[in-house]
Specification:
There is one protein chain. By secondary structure, the protein is mainly alpha-helical. Helices cover 74% and strands 0% of the residues. The chain is built from 14 helices and no strands. Helix 8 (198-215) runs antiparallel to helix 9, helix 10 packs antiparallel against helix 11 (262-275) and helix 11 (262-275) runs antiparallel to helix 12 (278-290). It starts with 8 loop residues before the first helix and ends in a 10-residue tail after the last helix. 26% of the residues are buried. Residues 1-39, 54-60, 94-104 and 328-333 have low confidence and may be disordered.
Length: 333
């Protein structure tokens, strides 16, 4: 005989079996349920859950499923943010590319102009090799071209021409401030192409700039003072001639001799920022901006266009640098 369950024919045919407990004994089966009452809750459960997947219902209440929904939403938001980032990245890349093209075009124009000036000066010098003026003007052209060419090999070749012409001119005109000055500048261009050999050239540059200052400190808007100041600023202090105090003195002297020349005060501002003297840099920036319009009027014409492009770019950089919060303000010097 099979087991007697609530729905089995055995119990249906024997009502006594529906309540096997004695009368008065408490229990879940003390009140005899009928078969319909047993089935009704199951029918109601089926009706309520009709059309619903019990696995989905259980899963929807689990913490893991809730976390999954949130994670899915996060990834959707992240994917949208990534697409925005990609668009911004592409836009920035396009801007950078355009800027590079503009810079390359400007560099090509500067190089072309420098080559034309070099050829004119060379023709003049070849026609008058004993003329100190023709010599220093050719040395100036070699310096400008060496500054514009893209490779060190060509830079060294051009600078060596200027050095040779200057040394020959000094044999006939040893007291020419321009020749000493441009000899020092061409030595600087040659030093750019060296590594360890540059230190041996630094002392020669110092001697030429110092001699040019002794002869004519105002030449090229205090060019020798300016160049010597930058040399002291950028040369290493160890095993070389680098000195902040000497650099500041020379750069300030250049500003004093030619205050209206933007290059001089820009060099001083950039140096003050490099040394951490933001107060001094702000003071010089204010003076530079006060004289900017007058300088625009004084140094005008196509021959100054490259200089103004450089000065305006550097002016923007120092202004941005001074707008940024300082990590640590330097003490007064």
């Amino acid at each position: 005989m099979g087991l007697a369950t609530f729905n089995s024919p055995v119990r249906k045919g024997n009502p006594e079996l529906l309540n096997p407990l004695p009368e008065g004994v408490a229990g879940r089966a003390s009140v005899p349920p009928c078969a319909g009452e047993i089935r009704r809750p199951k029918a109601e459960i089926r009706k309520k859950s009709e059309g619903r997947n019990p696995r989905q219902t259980a899963r929807s209440r689990s913490p893991l499923h809730t976390f999954g929904l949130r994670l899915s939403g996060f990834f959707r938001i992240s994917a949208f943010g990534f697409r925005i980032w990609r668009l911004l990245h592409v836009a920035a890349s396009v801007v950078f590319l355009v800027q590079q093209l503009v810079n390359n075009a400007a560099a090509a124009d500067a190089q072309s102009s420098a080559r034309e000036a070099f050829e004119r000066a060379k023709t003049e010098y070849d026609a008058h090799p004993a003329d100190p003026d023709a010599a220093w003007k050719f040395a100036r052209a070699t310096f400008d071209l060496a500054d514009a060419v893209p490779t060190n090999s060509e830079r060294a070749s051009v600078a060596e021409q200027g050095i040779a012409v200057s040394k020959q001119a000094l044999q006939r005109a040893s007291n020419s401030a321009p020749v000493h000055y441009y000899l020092g500048l061409n030595l600087a261009q040659l030093a750019r192409t060296k590594t360890f050999g540059a230190l041996s050239i630094v002392n020669q540059m110092e001697a030429e700039f110092t001699r040019a200052i002794e002869l004519d400190p105002s030449f090229d808007y205090a060019g020798a003072e300016r160049s010597l100041g930058l040399l002291y600023r950028d040369a290493p202090a160890l095993l070389s001639i680098g000195s902040k105090s000497k650099a500041r003195a020379q750069l300030q002297r250049a500003v004093d001799l030619a205050p209206g020349y933007p290059e001089n005060r820009l060099n001083l501002i950039e140096s003050e920022l490099k040394w951490g003297d933001r107060k001094g840099a702000r003071r010089e920036l204010k003076l530079l901006e006060n004289g900017w319009a007058a300088a625009k009027s004084q140094f005008s014409g196509p021959e100054w266009s490259a200089s103004w492009a450089d000065w305006e770019s550097r002016l923007d950089k120092v202004k941005k640098a001074l707008e940024e919060p300082a990590r640590l303000e330097s003490p007064h010097h």
